[in-house]
Amino acid sequence: MDPYGPSLRQERRAEREDKMKKIGFVGLGSMGLPMAGNLARAGFAVTGFDLRPEAGAKLAAAGGVAAASLTDAFAGQDAAVLMVVNATQAEDILFGAGALAHLPEGGTVILMATCPPAAVAALARRVEAEGRRLVDAPVSGGVVGAEAGSLTIMVAAPSDLFAQVKPVLDAMGSKVVLLGEKAGQGATAKAVNQLLCGVHLAVAGEALSLAETLGLDMNAMLDIVSGSAASSWMLRDRGPRMLESEPRVTSAVDIFVKDLGIVLEAGAGAKTALPLAATAHQMFLAVSGQGKGAKDDSKVIDAYRALQGRA
To answer: How many C-beta neighbours within 10 Å does residue 183 have?
Structure first.
């Protein structure tokens, strides 16, 4: 016999869901800012911090609150989202700057950056040792997905914690998938995703570079391959930008330098050969070495142009 009864169970469920109302957000960059804005529009009380004051002002215009300091983005919050560059930066924020100590005991850190799986697992252990919990939740979808609230979010968290954070994640993504309960499983899924994205993008640059070298009409060629069995999402999305001299930056070259480095690290740890990922990594490195690391990742085509003496 249920000692609580259905009404009490519903009340306690509602209490759990209500816990995730106040959200701190660190990292208001090209993806983080629209993600935080989507949280604010969904009714969450969002307090965001970024080293650039103008980013905080933009969040305030979107309905959030600009934190005066990093610790203000943690103090009194139910959860703190980290949309930062890498695991080292997350560690520096949580422990080096001492921000985690300002998150109430029992609070949740939602790590949404792309990080090595082992590093995420290590961070989770340290966070839990401090009486808080960590959700491993990297994203895919780039700036466009962040702006539209249509990100794919790959989550690893215990089932009870996942139930609590899911409304928060739903406000930022259209596909929220639970991969498992162990921190690092979300990061592993993101590594597999980035392997495919990076290889697809690099080979799209190789194919279009060949067409360009052979003097084909590039718009016609792109139209053909984008609608044939040769197509991929990366080709359809980045291909048109490969034909532009200065495309809008939706994801930088150096992001794939980092992400494919994580892929190769995961492969090495599992003693798994990843020859295509390694080759793609070299092409992005080559473009970054040309001084184009901050440019749109569609500029990977310039690696092939350089090999042909045309970059």
So the answer is: 25
AA letter at 80: A
Say which of 166, 190, 292, 299 is annotated catalytic: 190
Q: What is the pLDDT of residues 207-242, one digit of tens each?
A: 999 999 999 999 999 999 999 999 999 999 999 999
The residues with which 111 forms a beta bridge, in sequence order, are: 82, 136
What are the Cα distances from residue 287, in Å, to 154, 233, 252, 308? 29, 22, 11, 14
Beta-bridge mates of residue 45: 22
pTM of the model: 0.89
Q: Which residues pair with 80 in a beta bridge?
A: 24, 109
Scanning the structure block, which residue is given the tokens 């090495």?
268
- Provide the token pair at 155: 């989550």
Nearest one of 183, 198, 176, 163 to 278, comparing CA atoms: 198
CA distances to 205, 245, 294, 298 from 284, in Å: 11, 17, 11, 10
Cα–Cα nearest to 252, from 222, 288, 276: 288
Rounded Cα distance between 296 and 242, Å, is: 9
Please give the Cα distance from 200 to 103 (Å, whole number): 40
The yes-or-no answer on residue 190 being catalytic is yes
Judge residue 39's burial from the number of C-beta atoms within 10 Å of its C-beta, 0-12 exposed, 13-18 middle, 19 or more buried: buried
Distance CA 18, CA 181 (A): 22
Backbone angles phi, psi at 164, to 5 degrees: -70, -40
